[in-house]
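Run log, item B.
One chain of 183 residues. Sequence copied directly from the ordering sheet:
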Amino acid sequence: MLHYSLLFIHVAAAMAIFASLGMEAVALAQLRQATDEPATRASLTTFGWSQRTGGPGGLVLVLSGITLATMYWHWRGAWMGLGFLGMVTAMAVGGIMTRRALKRLPQANNGGRSGALPLDVVPALRQSFAIRVALLTGVVFLMTAKPEPPVALGALLLAAIIGLIVGRGSARAQSAPAAVRSR
């Protein structure tokens, strides 16, 4: 019974992470369309909800995954270690790239004074988002297919490469936010 309870908690935590990514996608769309300070603040509120969902979800996912891997799988299978690596990498990308870009928003760090959005904020956020979605999708593949080591490594590397390519393309294709264009 403990095994199934842990497995449920693990899957529910993964669902929370993908829900937080959905919220982040909405926040990115809001930020891209923001034409004034209140609209920018609304997108930051959505980012906040995303972080309040994804952060605890990631922690529960990692802890339940380590427990399952230790108690029931005894760390046999490259997919577990690589899945853990993919998850930690996605968390690091979010913690570094997303946080750094959010701190560059004028409303986030200067007491709400109005100002143009830095041109690189939204593209950086979109790049971070694409990398994390690809990595986490690769982790889901590892957890469900449980492939042999060469396939597991290849899948995670492919996910990372796809995330980098899509992220770069997304960042390049991103036009300046409406708030910047209108000033």
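Observations after the first pass:
- The CA atoms of residues 74 and 148 lie 16 Å apart.
- Residues 107-113, 175-183 have pLDDT under 50 and may be disordered.
Flagged for discussion on Thursday.
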